[in-house]
Amino acid sequence: MIYLDNSATSRIDSEVLSVMTEVMQDIFANPSSLHGLGGKAERLVNAAREVLARQLEASTNEIYFTSGGTEANNLAIKGIAFAYQQRGSHLITTQIEHPSVYDVHKQLEEWGWKITYISANEKGKVDPADIERAITDETVLVSVMHVNNETGTIQPIQEIGQILQSYPKIFFHVDAVQSFGKLPVHPKQWKIDLLSLSGHKFHGPKGVGALYLRQGIQLSPLMVGGGQEQGIRSGTLNVPGIAGLAKAATLADQKRVEKTKKVLKWKLSFLEQIKANLDNVMINGDPTPNESSPYIINLSFPGLKSEVIVHSLETKNCYVSSKSACSSRLEKPSRVLLDMGLTPREALGSIRISMGLDTSESELVELAELLKTVIPSLQHIIKDQ
Amino acid sequence: MRYDCILIRYGELALKKKNREIFIEQLVKNIEEKLAIFPRVSVIRARGRLFVELNGYNHEQVISRLKEVFGIVGISPAWKVPSEIDRLKEKALELVQSQSAQISTFKVVSKRTDKQFPYRSDQINREIGGFILSQIRNVKVDVHHPDLFIHVEVRGRFSYIYGNDILGLGGLPVGVSGSVMLLLSGGIDSPVAGYLTSKRGGKLCAVHFHSFPFTSERAKQKVIDLAQHLTRYVGTIRLLVVPFTEIQTQINEHCYSSYSITIMRRFMIRISESLARKHGCLALVTGESLGQVASQTLESMNVVNAVTTLPILRPLIGMDKLEIINLAKEIGTYETSILPYEDCCTVFLPKAPKTKPQLHVTEKQEKLLNIEQLVQEAVEKTEIIDLSPDQENKEFSYF
């Protein structure tokens, strides 16, 4: 099997799985229970919290566990919007955000907030100057993703963070779901106030994620109840999930530097292959090494339907994605690609190839070979060229 | 902005001539321990100050650690450049440019320890100041109240350039004043008392009284967490956990309930004194503030003090509750302190504690108990937990 849909989700690491199994069996108590068993579960959760805190160069009281990236994003954006509505009701985000950020802003818009959506350039990158221009006295939050989930383009987070230093009343949220565990992430250095991450994107379990929230910032909780996570996120803690998340983060931290170098090399030679051997192909995003995540490749075959390409590759036991997995069942061209200036026809023919920490070179080599046969034959059948 | 090193000033230390050497040595040692997680940094002693050479590490991360070291008065990220007037000018200009949005006035303050350098201090000032004025509009020189001080220190082949000071914690390096035994309850006050004692150079041992099942394991964990947090400022801490259930049960059974708090505190002091002698501590420290609760009246302090000859330090004595809370928040112990677990002081709290206990009544009440044996047993069964900064959690081997 060739699995190249790691930005949708990644295969769980066997070491993560065994930690989780052990925790499920042995440390099953509720961390909120007063007795010793509960105490042990709570200490385990806090040890896991320490792992994440260390990697993010943060304190343990700045890490909040959630049910995943979507919840972390919702909590960050709505949490700020609600908590600081007296201060202002204007939010800034981008046209290229993941739906768990973009649609939250849409929802807030329906509820009366004013939102500015910043467009990206043709390479999928947002200009920090556009963000600064959009700032008003009413602005309370700027939310920009680190690595775009469709194109892999890296957004200028540091520059935006630097600009926002001159606006101390504006908070800065970064969706790092596609970067954490693969690329360096430094919330403090980059002047980020809130940062979301998700376990299953780096070989951890599904159903668990985390939000980094800089100390001293208020957040309106979305879930109220037992008052877990300092009241920010009620609900019994997902102890095995949290342990799995921390284990996956530990492993990713050990592997990622080496892996990133390799993956970049594979990506570049893959792109060479594609350009040399296929007609009518576009490389979306920014192919310059440092401007884009080495783990993500986005191609368009104008005239073809991405769904058909995905299914054709599937028959060869090779798995890639059309758009991001969450929205791929809709017959609609990608909002992200359209924003970058692609035509609907170009956008509808795009596929995303995404690697993980367990991807091997041969997978990418074989995919290139498969594309060399699959694409020309599809282009031959579908005459809309 | 990338810096080469960090300059550290230690103010008060420089005044104490006789002990100076010991103090500086301790400060260097404490800084080195604090920065041990950055193996490539080196601490260099210079006249009246220290330099931390960053060797590639991010200065913000190093500074955030230095801000937790007692004895440091001022911290400045600095550049190390060859002692050539043009290089000095360039760097000084860079410094002003990096802050030009925030400042409108500056002053150059130079020092020349190397008399070989062809410019005198005032000449360096004028050379650099003039250069900056010629390069940047909108900034002026103000020799009295400048927004930015540009410090230039010429020391042999290399010179240091740095801007305004970041405030350090002040105080004295931990360890120069000997060891103390802190009575650590888990409330808001005692961690702050420990912090303040360490600020004056005291090395901490801490004692906690644990009355399981009247107080939970969480209450003990909370105290461990608090002590662990204090290690950021004070380095290693030996935490002693005294089994206190038997003593509390006996007091409750045999003594007037109105005197139970007084008697309990006398037991705590006796045990703490015994542990202090065992672990080389020369004073006890409590988080008491005058008149805050029943046990903190002068009458009560008299009766409690009567069981020991060790000095009992009460660094919070002049502070209001709100000031204590603010300091607890600043040092980061507040959030842990307010976790709602029973501690040994609240469990057996009588309805009407004696606010002005009398010594002879207390002593008569205590006659009903076998004090010596109870104290000795508690001391013998005391659990020792050694905590050190940056200690990794070893309970779980998963990560």
Architecture overview:
The complex is a heterodimer of chains A (385) and B (399). Chain A is of the alpha/beta class. Chain A is built from 11 helices and 12 strands. Chain A has helices spanning 14-26, 36-55, 69-83, 99-110, 128-134, 157-164, 239-277, 306-315, 335-339, 344-348, 361-381; strands at residues 2-3, 63-66, 90-94, 114-118, 139-145, 171-175, 194-198, 209-213, 282-284, 296-300, 318-319, 350-354. Chain A has a 7-stranded mixed sheet with strand order 2-8-7-6-5-3-4, sandwiched between helices. A 3-stranded antiparallel sheet of chain A has the order 9-10-12. A two-stranded parallel sheet of chain A has the order 1-11. In chain A, helix 2 (36-55) packs parallel to helix 7. The radius of gyration of chain A is 21 Å and the shape is globular. The mean pLDDT of chain A is 95. Chain B is an alpha/beta fold. In chain B, helix 6 packs parallel to helix 7 (217-234). Classes of the chains: A alpha/beta (385), B alpha/beta (399). Chains A and B meet through helix 1, helix 2 and helix 7 of A and helix 7 of B.
Provide the descriptors you would attach to this structure in a database record.
heterodimer; A: 385 residues; alpha/beta; Aspartate Aminotransferase, domain 1; Aspartate Aminotransferase, domain 2; 2 domains; seven-stranded mixed beta sheet; three-stranded antiparallel beta sheet; 12 strands; 40% helix; globular; B: 399 residues; VC0802-like; Rossmann fold; nine-stranded mixed beta sheet; six-stranded mixed beta sheet; 15 helices; elongated
Break the fold down into its secondary structure elements and pairings.
The complex is a heterodimer of chains A (385) and B (399).
Chain A (H helix, E strand, L loop, with lengths): L1 E2 L10 H13 L9 H20 L7 E4 L2 H15 L6 E5 L4 H12 L3 E5 L9 H7 L4 E7 L11 H8 L6 E5 L18 E5 L10 E5 L25 H39 L4 E3 L11 E5 L5 H10 L2 E2 L15 H5 L4 H5 L1 E5 L6 H21 L4
Parallel strand pairs in A: 1-11, 3-4, 3-5, 5-6, 6-7
Antiparallel strand pairs in A: 2-8, 7-8, 9-10, 10-12
Chain B lengths: L4 E5 L2 H4 L4 H15 L7 E5 L2 E5 L5 H8 L7 E9 L2 H14 L6 E8 L8 H15 L4 E2 L6 E8 L2 E5 L3 E2 L11 E5 L5 H11 L3 E8 L6 H18 L2 E7 L1 H10 L5 H19 L5 E2 L12 H8 L6 E2 L7 H11 L2 H4 L6 H4 L11 H8 L4 H10 L2 E5 L12
Parallel strand pairs in B: 5-6, 5-7, 10-11, 10-13, 11-12, 13-14
Antiparallel strand pairs in B: 1-3, 1-4, 2-3, 4-8, 4-9, 7-8, 12-15
